[in-house]
Amino acid sequence: MDSVAAHLLLCAVLLLSASTQALTGFGFGLVALAILGSWMDLRDAVVLTAPAGLVLNIALFLKLRRAFTFDDLVPLLMACLAGVPIGVWLVLNMGPRGLKLLMAFIMITTALHRMWVIQQKEPGKVWHPVKAGIPCGLLSGILGGAFGVGGPPVVSYLVNRSMDRFRYVATVQVVAGGTAIIRLVQFAQAGRYEEVPYWMFVTTFASVLIGVFIGMRLLRKISDQGSQKGILVFLILGGLYYLIQA
Questions:
Q1: What does each C-alpha distance from 36 to 32, 43, 59 come to in angstroms?
Q2: DSSP three-state, residue 223
Q3: Which of 29, 94, 224, 246 is deepest in the core (most CB within 10 A)?
C-alpha cells in the first residue's frame, strides 16, 4: 500500500472511530486500533492516533461542558493520571504478540461488560468514589496510556453512579483527555513524533472533527439500542481477530 492510500485509510478510520465515540461516549481507540492493527504495527497505530484522540476529547467536552462537575470524580481522575505512565511503558516495551493478546482481552472484556450494562433492569448499589473510583481509575489510566482505550473501567464506574447520559459522556472525555495529554508528552519525549509531517496532524484532526459532526447527527436518528448492538458485534469480532493473530 502506497503512502497516500495508507494516509487516506488512516483518515477514514479516524472519522469512523470519532463518529463511534460521539454516539456512545467511548470507543475511539478500540475501533481505530482494531482496524489499523490489521495492517500496521499496533505500537505505531497507538502513536499515530494519540493526538487525534485528544482533539476528539476536547471537541466532545466543549459540546457537553455544562453537564460536567467534579463531584465524586477526584479519586477516579487522580488514580487514572497515576496509571498512564505504566501504560505508556507497556506499549513501548511489550512485544507484538503480547500487545495483540492484551488488545484481544480488552475488546472482548469490554463487549461482555457492555452486555451486562444493557441487561441491567434496575440500577444497582451506587459505587463508592474512593473504594471503586481508585481501582477503576488506575486500570483506566494503564489501558489509556497503553492503547488510548481507558473507557471501559471508567464506564463501569459511571454507570454505577446513576449519572445522566450528558454528564457521563462529558466525564469520559475529561478522563480520556487527561490521559491523552500525559501519553502525548511521553511519546514526544521518546522521539515518536520527530518524523511525522505537520500536514498529517492537520488531516487527521480534520477527520476527527468531521467524525464528531457525523456522529452527533446520527445520534438523533439511530436508536441507542441499535448502535449498542453494532458496537458489541464489532468488539467481539475484533477481539477474536487479535486472538487468532497472536
A1: 6, 10, 23
A2: coil
A3: 29
Spans of all domains in the chain: 3-245
CA atoms within 13 A on the CB side of 211: 32
Cα 125 from Cα 77, distance rounded (Å): 21
**Nearest CA among 84, 106, 102, 92 for reference residue 47:** 92
d(CA 82, CA 179): 9
CA atoms within 13 A on the CB side of 69: 5
DSSP secondary structure letters along 159-216: HTTT--HHHHHHHHHHHHHHHHHHHHHHHHHTTTTTT--HHHHHHHHHHHHHHHHHHH
The whole-angstrom separation of Cα 151 and Cα 70 is 17
pLDDT tens per residue, range 97-126: 787 787 778 778 777 876 776 676 555 567
Asked whether the CA dihedral 207, 100, 5, 181 is positive or negative, the reply is positive
